[in-house]
Amino acid sequence: MDVTLYQVAAENGKVRVSLPENWHTEYYGMPGDTMPALTLEQIRNRINHPSGGMKTIRELARGRKNAVIIFDDASRGTKLKEIAEFVVEELLAAGIREDNIEFLCALGNHGAMTRSQFVRKLGENIVGRFCVFNHNPYENNVLLGYTPEGVPVEINREFAESDVRIGIGAITPHPLNGFGGGGKLLFPGIASIATTTGNHTKSKYGWMGQQSSPVMRTEIEDMTRMAGEFFKIDVIYNARLDIIGLFAGDPIAEYYEGIQAAAVTYRSRIPDKKDVIVANANAKVNEADLAILNAAAYLKETGGDIVLVNYCPDGQVVHYFSGPFGRKAFGRQWGPMGDEVAHVRRIICLSPYPDQYSTLRFGDVDGKKRVVWVKTWEEAMELLRKDHGEGTEAGIFSDGTIQYFA
Known about the structure:
By secondary structure, this protein is an alpha/beta fold. The chain is globular, with a radius of gyration of 21 Å. It has a six-stranded parallel beta sheet. A six-stranded mixed beta sheet has the order 6-5-4-9-12-13, sandwiched between helices. The chain contains twelve helices and 20 strands.
């Protein structure tokens, strides 16, 4: 079977994989992969018809002085440029001065982005015209109050003190919250480390697209209400990163409208257990461990191999909350993959950009060596053929970082 997988950083944005004809190979795509991208006119029309009784951006901004636009970081494949430019147009049309509009990257507890990364997300025009800031989870946050469970609700000061607050993000499957989107752009997106700790430790990793606990999502919604007026834009995209859906307005109302569509567009049929799974990781290219966890769940318990397709020149995201900072220094919720990948023989990482930091993230722990780096598909197949012959049962995931199986 020959399949084209989409990788933004690859030549022409595509990687071709080919598995032997005498293998039993199945391809697992998503319904969204066959859906057309929204036109610019459709995008603008959906933003201008907000849900939940929310006013349009132009109506919200009229008579106000300044605005902040929150956007998701490099760990998400959201195409922001055209949406961000339209939001700016609406703010200017409402009378807000250009030098009173700023952008704030919702890093959560991820490492700060650079100018070149901002340009990839927002475009050269916006980065050249407006101030674009990184959120800092350790400083410059204000206390809004406490949740019923006693969690301090602390949020970025720039957001808290702005007249107009707009967010641009995406609804995608998430292993803790069921689906990201909605108020998650604020909590943990621009929250303090204390707020994130209090909220995120209420859940543990589970199946993508299914909540491990409703407490985390309910608390995020409570905190979002405490944050006050917030116009949220959430997109749904496919393995090509085409925007195929958009929901806007009140962050909770639009979120629940959006996850109904997301539950369809990202859903894949459940695979039988496989000997080999090729898992693409493109939409959340620097959180490729999501694709590994997805693939590991459908490998035979007797063992098997994962081929991770992940062209990420920036490497895996720095995560202050749950990442490693040395072999004996970790974020406060660090937990390397253990039981989830115990039956995995090898994780063959197909990437022109190997790095040993990612090896720690991907499953080489406690002296167990699973991760092997290769730079070409031919190298990957050479390794696979040594252990897998005729009749091998294999699967290919179109994008294991955003699809879920149900």
